[in-house]
Amino acid sequence: MYGIKEIIIESFKSLESVTVELGLLNIFIGANGSGKSNFLEGVGVLSAAVDGRVNDQTLLMRGVRPGTPQLYKSSFKNTDTPSCIAFTAKNTKTQYHVELDNADDPPKPNWLFLQEQLCSIANNKEYQTQEKRNHIKSDRGFAVLRAEESNKKPPLQLIRRLQDYRIYTPTTPVLRSMSTDTQPHRPLGLSGGRLPEAVHELLLYQDSDSYARQITSDFFSLISWADEYSTVSVSKIPIPTFASVSPRILKFQDHFMANERNVVSGYDASEGAMYVLFLAVLVAHPDSPTFCAIENADYGLNPRLVKKLFQQISQWVIDSPVQKQLLITTHNPIVLDGLPIQNDKIRLFVVNRTSKGKTAIKRILPTEEIIDMGKKGHTLSELWVMGLLGGVPDV
Length: 395
Known about the structure:
By secondary structure, the chain is α/β, with parallel strands linked by helices. It has eleven helices and 14 strands. Helix 6 packs across helix 8 (271-284).
């Protein structure tokens, strides 16, 4: 498989110029406002560009918050406003590069493609469409056509993976099926919609898929009060009539409760159980994106559960037969203690703003100093809170 090895973003919001070399599970820590979400959204703009159109609708579909045009381009004191926003993505064989102008004067619906290139890294040979478009100020991109006409795996897999990209921000009301997801996707909406349906599908897949079977089983090691979980029609479980916007709802069996009163619906189950189940489905479901991001994946979770969950997610990602890639932001230091960063597939990044306000993203490697601190009993979370890794607010 040709996963995405490197992302370069230039002149997008606080990201004047950042290069991030990705693994499979990529965790971004840092202070509020440091630029973590800007990086995720920059990749969302890149994804829309690969698909051929960049506008409010194509950005919303990927979980990018639409903004006013003048706020997309980097703008720092005593520097000129850049003429374009640039993105580059690479796998081991292919590079995609695009330069965009979001046309803020006057505003236009579609961003303009100033330059676009899909080429082989080995010899810099371009994959071209029959029109051989080297377009200037076009509102359409042609990367998909170029990849398809090349009929070669590296460019096709790079383009398909970038097309797949979405940013998930699950919310409790949507996970409980109490509210409608404004961006519904299969298998999961960007706010957690379709969770009961996706769980139902995953439980069916586990009969023939050992990977799905392992993850559905691992859920019980994370949520110890549950004996069983499934989905049922909303008419088959007692919930308030106003509660569900979905025809199906999650059903849990609590082994601490008396047999005749031990059924708990997704409406009544703990918030933590819903978040854990969402993350398990996102990783395990065969139709979930091969490349995606999750904002604040630790939201509402107990610290000990967070550590165990990220140990489990790390193993799920390592074992995945399709090499799914996840970008995850967090503010919870305990997340770090669940990460086996000595494995190159699991990468931890600290996000800071420089003295000039520019976002800097640095990978934390298991250096001799960090290993030595670990031998002395210090955890990664302690090193972060003490400010030894960076990425903590200066307050």
